[in-house]
């Protein structure tokens, strides 16, 4: 049995004797020994996310984006579905694609600089709450973020680090699940009209018509 004196920095396990990074074999069992205060509880390392209520959120956005018009895209509590696919499975990957559920914890708005008709997402406290399809090989734990793009990146960094890009087009990645539908990868791949981009396009058309009428 091998024994190493290690240190942990920037997500890396470093052998203190050689200074080299140690790579752990997936699904093997390891025993860590250290002082009680050397181990951080999960809650300790989490960022503090404090959602705003509807009135606070609108007031915050109006103050932040004074030269923009705002439009609500989805209310607080809306459930969104998103997929993460891996280009190439490694030894430790039990699946090549995964389906997750997220919940927005504030009202979600889009913003548009006056007369540009180019709508983009505003930040919104959100949480990935459930793994719907795909097996990680260990229990899933919820992940929070300050925007949908950040949430996607956080999930990738946590569960699929360096296995794919952390970037996404949030409008085309996140889907609103109809109440009469059960979430599945099959539904996700065939429900093109349910993503956030469809709702954005409807708002753009409505705003354009209102401008013409004026």
H-E order: EEHEEEEEEEHHEHH
Radius of gyration: 21 Å
State the low-pLDDT regions, or none: none
Span between termini: 78 Å
Widest β-sheet, arrangement of strands: 9-8-5-4-10
Give the percentage of residues in beta strands. 15-25%
Characterize the largest beta sheet: strand count, sense, and whether it forms a barrel.
Answer: 5 strands, antiparallel
Number of helices: 5
Mean pLDDT rating: 86
Shape: elongated
Explained architecture:
- This protein is of the alpha+beta class.
- The chain has helices at residues 54-64, 148-159, 170-173, 185-190, 196-213, and strands spanning 6-9, 12-15, 68-74, 79-85, 97-104, 108-113, 120-121, 126-133, 143-145, 175-176.
- The radius of gyration is 21 Å and the shape is elongated.
- The mean pLDDT is 86.
Reconstruct the topology from this structure.
Elements: E1 6-9, E2 12-15, H1 54-64, E3 68-74, E4 79-85, E5 97-104, E6 108-113, E7 120-121, E8 126-133, E9 143-145, H2 148-159, H3 170-173, E10 175-176, H4 185-190, H5 196-213
Antiparallel strand pairs: 1-2, 3-6, 4-5, 4-10, 5-8, 6-7, 8-9
């Amino acid at each position: 049995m091998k024994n190493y004196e290690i240190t942990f920095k920037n997500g890396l396990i470093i052998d203190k004797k050689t200074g080299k990074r140690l790579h752990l074999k997936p699904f093997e069992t390891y025993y860590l020994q250290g002082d009680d205060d050397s181990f951080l509880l999960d809650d300790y390392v989490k960022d503090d996310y404090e959602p705003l209520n509807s009135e606070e959120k609108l007031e915050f956005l109006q103050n932040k984006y004074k030269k923009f018009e705002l439009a609500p895209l989805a209310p607080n509590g809306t459930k969104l579905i998103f997929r993460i696919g891996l280009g190439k499975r490694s030894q430790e990957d039990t699946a090549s694609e995964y389906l997750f559920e997220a919940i927005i914890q504030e009202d979600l708005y889009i913003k548009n600089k006056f007369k540009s008709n180019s709508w983009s997402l505003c930040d919104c406290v959100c949480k990935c709450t459930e793994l719907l399809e795909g097996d990680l090989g260990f229990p899933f734990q919820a992940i929070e973020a300050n925007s949908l793009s950040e949430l996607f990146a956080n999930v990738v960094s946590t569960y699929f680090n360096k296995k794919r890009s952390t970037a996404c087009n949030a409008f085309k990645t996140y889907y609103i699940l109809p109440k009469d539908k059960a979430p599945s990868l099959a539904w996700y791949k065939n429900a093109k009209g349910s993503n956030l981009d469809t709702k954005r396009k409807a708002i753009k058309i409505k705003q354009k018509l209102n401008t013409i009428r004026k």
